[in-house]
Specification:
Alpha-Beta Plaits; 2 domains; 33% strand; alpha+beta; globular; 5 helices
Length: 255
């Protein structure tokens, strides 16, 4: 396959899906498998040149994506359909480039994000082995309607310092959650928590889900403890962090 080189860098916007089970996260890391690292390596294998894939969200180890947005810049001038076909063929089956568009050279996937949508899936009965790697099996009894109430505690603009990773050292921990909904998916016998907001702290969604499931399984008497944890602004507390395999980056919307 022969490609022409252009004098100027070409910018391509990608939408990528991946099963994060076998990766240490999105971000390229030395001596650890990552989604970005796999994309970079596959591109070099096919096109014999280095690139750096820049992603909109640095998903953690084990987290999945359906709508990760990324950018590459290269002096290769490649028709987008050929680029997508050749690059996908060099990737592991657990990563798929869903679309590629040639874009503005000023496009940065970190900038001008208006909303990110995440899904968190969990099971209340032992899941099928075909689905279990995409959700969290939570075996404890709970009132699902009360869980809906607990989740609404997090909607709006709050200081989420208590619901971030202890490794997240950012000083600004104010974030806005636009909405949280809970739906049942009969086909998979799974529940889906949908969280929408512009930006999130590291582990924020997983900590919200873990805390909510724990409080919902204890009953309404435990709700004041959640409020106490919220007010403490300290991530070191006893409420759990939901495991990574239930989290999916579903969609990113830009201005």
């Amino acid at each position: 396959m022969i490609f022409c080189y252009s004098k100027n860098m070409n910018t391509y916007k990608l939408i990528i899906a991946y099963d994060g089970t076998n990766y240490s996260g999105w971000q390229a890391q030395d001596h650890k498998p990552s989604v970005a690292g796999a994309l970079n390596a596959a591109f070099k294998k096919v096109f014999k040149t280095d690139i750096r894939v820049l992603g909109a969200s640095r998903t953690d180890a084990g987290v999945h994506a359906l709508g990760q947005v990324a950018r590459i810049q290269t002096d290769l001038a490649i028709p987008t359909e050929k680029l997508k076909w050749a690059w996908n063929n060099a990737l592991s089956p657990d990563i798929s480039i869903r679309s590629i568009q040639q874009g503005d050279n000023n496009f940065n996937p970190f900038c001008n994000v208006t909303q990110k949508t995440y899904h968190y899936h969990f099971f209340t009965e032992r899941p099928s082995p075909f689905f279990q790697r995409y959700g969290y099996f939570y075996p404890y009894k709970m009132d699902i309607e009360f869980l809906r109430t607990v989740l609404q505690t997090f909607v709006g603009t709050h200081d989420f310092a208590s619901f971030r990773s202890s490794e997240d050292v950012r000083t600004n921990t104010i974030r806005t959650i636009d909405s949280i909904t809970l739906d049942y998916l009969p086909r998979y016998k799974a529940y889906r928590i949908t969280v929408k907001g512009q930006k999130f702290l590291r582990h924020m969604i997983r900590r919200i889900v873990g805390a909510s499931l724990s409080i919902a399984s204890q009953g309404s008497a435990a709700l004041p403890f959640l409020h106490k944890v919220f007010a403490a602004r300290n991530p070191r507390h006893t409420l759990p962090n939901a495991p990574a395999q239930g989290l999916l980056l579903y969609k990113i919307i830009y201005e």
